[in-house]
Amino acid sequence: MTLFRTLPRVLTFVLAPLILGGCAASSVLSPYPGQAAAWQRALDTGQADSAFASLTNKRSSADRLLYLQEQGRIGQLAGKADDSRSAFESAIGAYENLENRATISATASLASGASLLTNDNARPYNGSLYERVFVHQYQALNFLANGDATGALVEVRRANLIQNEALAKKEKSVDKARNEAESKGFDAERYGNYFSGMDIAAGRVKSSFQNAATFYLSGLIYEATGQHNDAYIDYRKALELVPDNRYVQRDVVRTGLRSGLEDAEKLARQLGNVQVAPKAGEGELVIYLEEGYVPAKSPLNIPIWTSKTTNNVSFPVYAGNVPAAQSMVVTVNGASLETALLVDTRALAVRTLKDELPGMMARAFLRLASKQEMQRKLQEQDPLLGLLGSVYSLVTDQADLRSWLTLPGSGQVLRLPLSAGTHRVSLPGLAPLDIEVRNGRPTLVHLAVLPGKTYSRVYPL
Prior knowledge:
This protein has about 450 residues and is of the alpha+beta class.
């Protein structure tokens, strides 16, 4: 009879984390990669409209920021520039609310408390820096789709400002998380080997958020609007991140020479003959090509030592070999040309997770302590309740696998001068595109090469 008398109270205690976590409980009980796989399949089979519609009813959940990002990306690929813009506007507002929040709200506090009894999935999704940068980058493309270069510049400036500010804060935030984890009894050397498989991929990028594609896009728009000095500055920032990119090298030289900068003259001597501007009767074709998807996280069980016991805790990892981006071949007027890397999104995702691990471990330690205390109290009341508590601990120990999964695996660029007129662009999986190149102007072509389908958009600048 003791069990039946106490069961309602126990169920309330057990279910409270899911209630307090709001709709984020869907990620507690249903790993996020499984949800995102359905949208990826829709994109691969040309069903972007249905994937976009399926996300609408998720925009009010605790993970709304994540779903808004997915919907904005899918809408853009589907050619719904206005709908994509609306989704990204809401995502940007959500990021700004997080940034401007002076104190933790009651809802966030409850959700964080819930995460101590369930897992990190009960915490509302707050996004990652590299995801936030992509939001502004894609929003800039939505403005370009409507012929608004000024609006596009505002967005890439915001993306670049986020990167610049985060660069100054990054090391401090990583050190703070690491110190917090160590203060709770964690030995970094003890646990580091479990995550060493991600070291090579994480080492491919200088930080977890710097994105040369956004600097390149802003440089391109500046140049198209005649602001050559500003274009040079942002092309130069892009080159610092991808120093071997031959297209960015030439763009730095071209805009630098037009601005009379000595650094550009030195680089020009290294590269040899670089065309400063399109010749008479020429324009430029600029292809920004994205390929594949960013990888999904997988769970990995790791033994965590507390003062009482050793427990297996599930952490997110990027399992196996996370491949480096390979250049793509695009055919322009029958000639095969190779792209060059601008952003390795796979590596950004891995580096982000590596930076977040100290904080995750600190929360795992607190979560273990909370669950062990819960089990002790239940055991004192009734052995069956103690067993229920043990089962609950096992069921709710799930790694937080959430991340923006319709992002590309990489972003690459190909740029060349062409005579004014119509030119044919093609690559496997894409019907040939006839692109109009205007005299003295660049034309931006955005290609998203997915496993089953290639999406394309053209933005005259």
